[in-house]
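Give me structure tokens for this 231-residue protein.
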Amino acid sequence: MSGEIKRIPLDRRVCVVREGRIDLRPERAAVVGPLVGLAISVSLFVAVALFANELSVTALALMLIPGVILAPFAAMGFVYSLIGAAVVMESNKQSVRFQQGVMGLGIGTVELVPFWKIDRIEVADFALGDTPAKGPRPPLDLRAWEIVLVKESGKRLPIAQVIAANSTGLIDEGFDRALDAAEAMAALVGKPMAITAAVEEGAEQEAAQPAADAGSQSAAGPIRGSAEEAQ
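Here you go.
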């Protein structure tokens, strides 16, 4: 059990759960884009070196400038996709670290939250936008949830989101992923988990039992209610 690693896919991130530690990391496919950028940059530099005596200065500049601009961003994205993390929770340090994104290589700390300053881990609805569509409605309706760390001061720090198609089966699967990740986080930090998102009746019944099990391992059980009641 001590070496078991659980991966929970979220929106553009994956929740990696280990004993005493949880990392919110880029998904594995995130390395593809930076690799392509690096390949293009290297190709441009090689072409400039090979054809330096044959092409005009203007042509060489048009090849060199994009490579110079693209190379550092691609390199930072590559490092971030390999070793970077957006959020790190560690039981031995009793803290949650919100880290910098690509520009900070995912290793610089933006905000540090000690466990004792955390009030709860919350699963809330995530608004995708309420602007009415012009023309026919899209064939696929989406539903989204957000996992939020709520401090005792009331400050809300978004951790991750989960997006799923708003259809039977898929919406339950998406909510289960958000619930699994939130339960693991609440158990690690020893705080209650709150579900303020609007939940389908069947999904709420399915979520009740695992939420209660996770709550028994933390300082308090899960909290249910409306978003207004939670605030």
